[in-house]
Every structure is written in C-alpha cells, then in structure tokens.
Amino acid sequence: MSKSIDDILSIFKDDERVYVNNEYIIGKIQELALKYDEKLISTILNNSKMKLHFFIEVGGALIFKREEFIEFIGGKYYLEDSYTKYRNKIGLAVDNSYIKENRDVVLNWAYKDCVLEGGQDREDAKQDEVFYNEVLASDDIDRLYENKVLTNFKKFDENGESEALVINENDNLIIKGNNLIALHSIKDRYKGKVKVIFIDPPYNTDNDSFNYNDKFTRSTWLTFVKNRLEVAKQLLAENGTIWITLSDVQAHYFKVLADGILGEENFIGDVIWQSRKSVSNDTFISLSTNHVFVYAKNKSVLDKNKFRLKIDTSKFKYDDNDGRGLYRCDPFDAPNERKNLSYEIKNPNTEEVYLPPEGRCWRTTNEEYNRLLSEGRIAFGRKGTSKPQLKVYLNESLEEQKGVTPTTLWNDIDTTTNATKDLEKLFGSKVFKNPKPEQLIERILEIASNENDIVLDYHLGSGTTCATAHKMNRKYIGIEQMDYIEDISVERLKKVIEGEQTGISQSLNWQGGGSFVYCELMKWNEIFINKIEKANDSKALKYIWNEMKEKSFLSYRVKVKQIDNNMSEFEELSFEQQKEFLIEILDKNHLYVNLSEIDDITYSVSDEDKKLNKEFYGLK
Prior knowledge:
Layout: H1 5-9, E1 19-20, E2 23-24, H2 26-34, H3 38-45, H4 48-54, E3 55-58, E4 61-64, H5 66-73, H6 82-89, E5 93-94, E6 97-98, E7 115-120, H7 127-130, E8 131-136, E9 150-157, E10 160-162, E11 173-176, H8 179-190, E12 194-199, H9 218-235, E13 236-246, H10 248-263, E14 267-274, E15 289-296, E16 327-331, E17 333-335, E18 345-346, E19 353-354, E20 360-362, H11 366-374, E21 378-379, E22 389-393, H12 394-400, E23 409-410, H13 416-427, H14 438-448, E24 454-457, H15 464-471, E25 475-480, H16 484-498, H17 505-508, E26 516-521, H18 525-534, H19 538-551, H20 560-565, H21 567-572, H22 575-584, H23 607-617
Parallel strand pairs: 11-25, 11-26, 12-13, 12-24, 14-23, 24-25
Antiparallel strand pairs: 1-2, 3-4, 5-6, 7-8, 9-10, 9-26, 13-15, 14-15, 16-22, 17-20, 18-19, 21-22
Helix pairs in contact: 2-5, 8-9, 9-10, 14-15, 15-16
GO molecular function, one term: DNA binding
Domain Type III restriction/modification enzyme methylation subunit: 37-92
GO biological process, one term: methylation
C-alpha cells in the first residue's frame, strides 16, 4: 500500500479524538482500532483504498484486519515525518522500529512488561510540556532501581527548621523525587513495615491536578500505576492495607490491574465516597462520587473485629435508670432467611405478634431471645408498642471494643470543597485543585491503623495524608516530585506542627507538636530534564545539548558526532520535538545519583550527606 502520510491520516482529520492541536495522535488511533471503535472503523471502511487493504470478505461479511492496521499505522515504513526521519538517521532505531515503539504488543495494555518513568514538573503546565513520560523496555533498565543518594536533609519541629543531624526509625519522612525511584530506594528500610498506604493517583483526565501528554494513553497510565503498585505491595506489612481513590474514568480498568498484582482474593471493598455536594448542569449525569478501592496485603490474617470505626458515643442516648447506663437500640432482625432464626415474637405490652421481615431472620435463636428478654435487653420502641429491638449498652461496647462495621457508602464526611476551603484558610488562596479532605484520611486510618503505625502516600500532592497522620499520631512517609512539595506540602506540615485548626484539628483537640525530616533524591540527568522542560527557545536547547555532552549520561545508542553533524535537521524539528528528543537520549538509569557512586568526586556528595545516607540505608 503506497500512500503518503498526509493522504492516509487525512481521513481521520474530522475526528477530534485523534486529531489534536493540528497533530495526529497515533497511539489513540491504535487504541480505538483495538476496541473496534465504530466511528473509526466506519471511517476506514468508507475509504475505498483503505477498505481494500484492511478488510477481507468472509461469507458475505467484511472482517476488519485489526492487527494488520495497528501494525501498519505504527510502522516505520509509514511514519516518515521529519522527526522520525531524524531519529532514524542518527541511530535511534532498533529492530526496524523506534525505541518508543519497540514493544511486543502495541496497545492491548501494551507496556505491562515495561517501566514507565513518569517525570513531573510544574503543576499548572500544559500537555507535552508538563508530563514527560517514557516507557522503558526491560533491557534499557539495569540501574534504575538501585538505591539513590539522598541530599538536602532538613528537620522541622516546634523550633522551626534545622539541620538533620541523625536519621532514625521514628522519624517522619518527606522525600522529593520521582516516586517510582524513591519507592525502590526506601524498600530495604521499610519492606513489610507499612500498615496503610493511601494514594490519590492522577486520574488521566483533564481535571487532574496536572495534565497529561496527549500521548499518555490508558495503556501507559496503567503501566505507570502498575510499576509503582508492585513495589508498594512489598512495603506493606502482612496485615497492611492499601487504599486507592479514583474516578469512574479509570476505576474499572484499575480494578482488573490491581487484582492481578495484589490478588483478587485480597480485595476488601469498593467504597463510594461522596466527593462533592453540588450538581453540575453541563453533563448528562453529575459526577458526585469517587471510588476508594481497598486491598489487603494478606486478607486472611486481618481481624474483622479490629477493622472497625470507633464507637460513636452520641448514638447511645437512652437510659432506663437501672444502673446499666446509656444504650442504643439496634434492629433485632438480620439479613438472610434461616429456619431456626424465624419464629414468632409477641410484644408483651400489646400482644401483637411479629415475624422477621421478608428475606430476613431474627438475630438469635428463640431460646437466646427469651434470655435477652428476661434480662431486660429487648426494647419495643420508646413507648413499648413497636417491633423488637436489641439494647446495646455503651459501657459494654467500650469494654469489648466493639466498633462499627464500615459500609461501602461514605456520604457523611467532608468533600473536596471542604478540603479546598481548608487549604485557602491555611495559605490565603486556592493553592491546589481537588484536594482530599482530612476526614477521609482520618476514617481510613481509624479503620486500618493504630497509633505509631507507618502510613505511606507516594502521590503526596497537597499533603493531606501526612497532615492527618501527623495529627493522629501515626508515623508517615510522603513522596512527591512536583515542585509544590516545598511550597505546599512541607509548608502545610509546618503549620500542622504549629497547631493549625483546619480539617480534623478541632475534633481531635490538636495542639501542635511533632517533627518530620525532609530530603531529596540527588539529581543528575534529572537536572537536564528540568532544564529542557523549562527552556523557552531552540537556542537554549542547543546550549543545554552542549552541556549534556560534557556532564550528562547519554543513552548507549546515542552517537554524539552524528547528532552534531546533523544539527541542521535538528533545527528543522518543532520546538516540542527538539525537547522530546533531548529528553529521550538521556540515560534514565542515571536520573539520580546511585548510592554505589556516593564517593565519586563527580557528584561532590558532602560528608554530612554521606553520614546520613549510611544511617538511612544501614551501611557501616
């Protein structure tokens, strides 16, 4: 089939899903083809030459040759645009396909055996400038997961900021750096010790706190989540749990992914949290909820009786003045039908006879009911004229630590609107989009942890998880790569130490105190990525390229002379393509300084940092 790139792609120009900002999104075309998208297939079918090449008639029916189309649309012999020609010319092609397209499967969760190293910069950036992401094939990774050098240690407590002189197991920890790499760096220290992980990952929608590269398809999003979930699982204690909040957009895809990593048998529930109260009139159905998926590391070792909400003493409001104290009335019927639990109960005051409601039974046997009745533990309403109820006494509940079983509907806690207002009180302006409220984290930690347990959030964002954990006397680890970690996350925790009164502070009578240690993964190639992303013109990029040649680690595939000899063709690329290219040729194994190279004079690691790294990693 011989057609120019413009001729072939032009048939999709009216499809806003695949033609964005005057550019065709090849990955999206492939993804739609994989799903047998009706509109896409109709477009191909209505073009006579495309129909001839990608359809076959069988028994009078036309069959779409999906795999052939997907392979063709991503094939090297077809994608002859200037960027591709340039990359091929200077040697960035392998096995007849380009590095980024060198995958065994194109889009059927294409990258599940690869690693997505997601780089994030400014929270308010847009599209390609914002979320640099690259899928790394397994043979491109040899040192990516090695422990990294930590630097810029600071301690924050009631006395303010000071130099961190020691690192011990009781320190709360905030780490700035790529969360995938940071998770691997803390793995040896915290493996099997984390009681609760809460994450609010990017949802892959326009409403995220940062936007995605248009090419960041569902497949790459799943890979992004998968890589991090695999190592996070190793950090969980055997009786630990992980809680993940997501919107409808990715929730169901995530569930299938998580079942494969965490085990379907370890799935606990899908909590529906009412995240907003207001109604949007510009959509078919106003989105009011988020999913909170709950998984255990090993569900079989969890104690159901401890997986409970604390007792709400306000519900115990009745007192018969018989010395037993306050009690509440619970229904005496229970789910399911059982013959031995279905019998007549006569109200002794009215002589009215009751049977369990249809599809239900009584909570106890007839013999047990008679015992409870004789002990005065059965009520028939406040006036004595209703159906039977069970008296539950407060003092007994407290002694037996009988908490309340959580349900899958949480519509009685704060929303993102409340959380936004709390942050506005703290910072004087709206500093973060769609933050989670402290009440949400409080409920999770109340159910699944105790004081001094370790809590981890590797998508720290505005810092809600760590702020809540701090107030609830849990230890915590927060990881964030975005620059706002210093301006928002750290500043928020400093205010928590000072005793700020937003969120759950008043209900807990929070008075401040405590401390945390801040540190960063020591950058190397990441320095150049940051410079490339912040460059304003091609002149700046060429200056960065010259610096990269001297100081960075380049991919082993890169031939510096070929790039320099073809600089005129580099200049013909668009500004965004130039940035993409320079980022691509950096060796991702050297984004940060490996711990094994801490004594290399190239990196000038200070003696103080060497000491703290040895303490952190348990080295002699």
